[in-house]
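thread: overnight batch results

M.L. [08:02]
morning all. the overnight job finished for the chain we discussed friday. pasting input first so we're all looking at the same thing
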Amino acid sequence: MSKNGKVLVAMSGGIDSSVTALMLHEQGYQVVGITMKTWDYANSGGSKKETGCCSLDSINDARTLAVNLGFPHYILDIRNEFGDYIIDNFVDEYLAGRTPNPCVLCNTHIKWEALLKRADKLDCEFIATGHYAQVREENNRFIVSKGLDDSKDQSYVLWGLKQESLKRTKFPLGGFRKTEIRQMAADAGYAELANKSESYEICFVPDNDYRGFLKRKVEGLEEKLDGGNFVDVAGKVLGKHHGYPFYTIGQRKGLEIALGEPMFVTEIVPETNTVVLGTKVDLERQSMYVRNPNFIKYASIESNHEVLTKIRYKDQGTMSEISMEENRVKVDFYSKVSGIAPGQSAVFYEGNDLVGGGFIDKQQLIINS
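M.L. [08:03]
and the structure it wrote out:
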């Protein structure tokens, strides 16, 4: 019986999850490793060689570490659940003119649920992942905060987690920098792991070509939608495009249209297969609505609650006030922000603490205020 309890560690075969398992093992936890098979690369139709968390090499790397350290390792096949929910949503969001956030959905509805279900079967008190974030208990709530390494912080993709999930979750890497994690791997005798490269692509789009993925998933998509109109913000037709799902808010490159000045995608209208182009100023907004919110630091928020709001993963954030209006959050920015993309996550912070988040609402985007 371990002194700290039994923990189920999600192991992708990469450096972060491997060092997570190594750290917990050294701290005296009874570690059980699990690798989740979410996707078959052969089914993506892409040209890139299979790499990343679902490849056979990665699964073998995770198992090898478990064998070396003497703890059990399992493979959990969740391809059906993942495909039905995450990939269908990914396609549906683009067809609705929005930009999806598959990592947030996967964490909230697939990975944590699958981990906790298996943890219960294996009598594990806790689950652990290699995310660069931290969690603590305060005022009877479990609060997520940013990881120490700003360049690696992953709290943005964790806003959808519920209190009952966070209560059992450990993020051992949150208090370390990536350079320290690499050194830990090297010091433990895993030099190859310490130098392992990282993938920043969507796991089921291994060639990083989401347009090609959509074409392969939806038969006849390009032929059906090719020839829609580019229009300016006043509605004037500027030219033809290849189909609205192949464009994203804020896009400038790859439009294949010359207009004499830099133009950006400012709006996508699926109903008419129209893509609106405008200047950088036309991209700016000062307010927006956010749907399906989840709050972590507080059970609920009061009106005019001051937070820093991030509208994308690498966004530095903008100070704002948030208020609940029925079942949505209204966000009023203190200064204009550019490139608000419906479907992406809006995530709210107080200092390093994650207040909560939600999905930017296409139907309720406020054009100007």
